TrEMBL record:
Belongs to the peptidase S66 family. It holds the Pfam family Peptidase_S66. PANTHER family: LD-CARBOXYPEPTIDASE C-TERMINAL DOMAIN-CONTAINING PROTEIN, MURAMOYLTETRAPEPTIDE CARBOXYPEPTIDASE. Residues 211-332 form the LD-carboxypeptidase C-terminal domain. Keywords: Hydrolase. This is LD-carboxypeptidase. InterPro entries: Carboxypeptidase_A_C_sf, Class_I_gatase-like, LdcA_N, Peptidase_S66_N, Peptidase_S66C, S66_fam. Residues 17-136 form the LD-carboxypeptidase N-terminal domain. It comes from Deinococcus aerolatus.
Length: 343
C-alpha cells in the first residue's frame, strides 16, 4: 500500500517561520549572512523569521547539547504563533538528535519544515510521523544568496510552499553554480556569484512513465541513519521515487555504488518507482560519468534496468535549487523528459 502523508498548511505573507540550528551552530560567526537571509525572505515572501530559543547560542553550546536542538524543534511545533520551520544550515551530526525527537509532536502539529543536507535526519523524521517535509534551501545558503534570491529558487519555493494546489512540471535551472564565497566578509554579500549556463537533465535509463512519493536526502547522512531508529520502516519505501544528493565531501562513485547496493539488499530498489539524482557538487566530468556508471551497474545487478532514473537535477548542494516536497506524489516520464509534481 502506498503511504500517505499530511500536507502542512501553506506559508503565506505574514507567516512566522522559526529559524533552527539542528546541525551546525556556527551561524553566530556569520551574522551578516544570517541577517541577509532574514531580510531577503521577508522582502520576497513576507515571512517573518523568528529565532528558536537555542538557535543562536553558538557552535560550542549546540555541539555539547543536542537535546537543546531537538527542544527548539519541539518548541516550534508546539508554539501556535509559529507557522513553519527553517533550517539555518546543515552540518554532520543531527543524527545525535534521534534519542530526543518526538514524532508524536510532529504528527500532532504538522508544519512545513525546510532544509537539506544534514536536515535529511529531520526530513525523514517528519515522513516517519506521517507528515510531508520539504527538501530545499537553508537560510544561510540559497535564501541568503549573494546579490539577492535567485528567481529559480523563488519559483520553486512559491510553487511548493505558498501555492501547492496545482500540479506542475519541474524544469532544469537555466544556470547553476558551486562557487564558494567568504560568508564572514559582509562586503561580498551584494556581489553576485559567477554562474554557468545550465546543461539540463540526463535520463540514465527507463522508458515507461512511473509515479510514486518523493523521499530520500543526502546519501552521506542516509548512511549515518541506516540501521538506527531514524531509518524509515520498509513500508515507507514502497513505491517511492528516491531523491538522492551528494554533499561537498564528494564521495567516490564506487562508494555511492556501495550505498545503493545496500538499498538493493534491503529491497528498497526493488520496491522503488524511480530515482532522481541531484547535480553532484565538486565532481569532474569524468567522475560524473563514473558515478552514473555505478548507478546503472547497481540497478542492473538488482534487476531494475526498467527503473526510470533522471540525473543532474537541480537540488542539493549546488545553486539554485528546487524545493522538493518529500511525501508528495511525483511522476517521471522518461520518453517525454518530464518530471511532474502532483497536488
Amino acid at each position: 500500500m502506498t503511504p500517505r502523508f499530511v500536507r502542512p498548511a501553506p506559508l503565506l505573507p505574514g507567516s512566522r517561520v522559526a529559524a533552527l540550528s539542528l546541525s551546525g551552530g556556527f551561524v553566530t560567526e556569520v551574522m551578516g549572512r544570517y541577517r541577509a537571509g532574514v531580510r531577503q525572505v521577508a522582502d520576497e515572501f513576507g515571512w517573518e523569521v523568528v529565532n528558536a530559543p537555542n538557535a543562536l547560542r553558538g557552535a560550542e553550546y549546540l555541539d555539547a547539547h543536542p537535546q537543546a536542538r531537538a527542544d527548539d524543534l519541539h518548541w516550534s511545533l508546539e508554539n501556535s504563533a509559529i507557522d513553519g520551520l527553517l533550517s539555518i544550515i546543515g552540518g554532520d551530526d543531527s543524527v545525535r538528535l534521534l534519542p530526543f525527537l518526538d514524532l508524536e509532536l510532529i504528527r500532532a502539529h504538522p508544519k512545513p519544515f525546510l532544509g537539506f543536507s544534514d536536515s535529511t535526519v529531520t526530513l525523514l523524521a517528519f515522513l516517519r510521523a506521517g507528515v510531508m517535509a520539504y527538501h530545499g534551501p537553508a537560510l544561510l545558503t540559497d535564501l541568503a544568496e549573494n546579490g539577492g534570491l535567485h528567481p529559480f529558487t523563488v519559483q520553486g519555493l512559491r510553487r511548493v510552499l505558498v501555492d501547492p494546489t496545482r500540479s506542475f512540471d519541474l524544469a532544469p535551472a537555466p544556470e547553476w553554480t558551486e562557487h564558494s564565497t567568504e560568508w564572514a566578509d559582509e562586503t561580498l554579500q551584494e556581489v553576485r556569484r559567477p554562474f554557468t549556463p545550465g546543461n539540463g537533465w540526463q535520463w540514465l535509463q527507463g522508458d515507461a512513465p512511473a509515479q510514486g512519493h518523493l523521499m530520500g536526502g543526502c546519501l552521506e547522512v542516509l548512511d549515518m541513519l541506516n540501521g538506527t531508529p531514524g531509518w524509515p520502516a520498509p513500508e515507507l519505501w514502497d513505491g517511492a521515487v528516491l531523491a538522492l544528493e551528494t554533499s561537498e565531501d564528494v564521495p567516490a562513485p564506487r562508494q555511492v555504488g556501495y550505498w545503493l547496493r545496500n538499498y538493493a539488499a534491503q529491497g528498497i530498489l526493488i520496491r522503488a518507482a524511480g530515482v532522481m539524482l541531484a547535480r553532484p557538487r565538486g565532481y569532474t566530468p569524468e567522475l560524473v560519468q563514473d558515478l552514473y556508471g555505478w548507478v546503472r551497474r547497481v540497478l542492473r545487478e538488482a534487476g531494475r534496468e526498467d527503473l526510470p532514473v533522471v540525473a543532474n537535477v537541480d537540488f542539493g548542494h549546488t545553486s539554485p535549487q528546487l524545493t522538493l516536497p518529500f511525501g508528495a506524489e511525483v511522476q517521471l516520464d522518461p520518453a517525454a523528459g518530464r518530471v511532474t509534481l502532483l497536488p
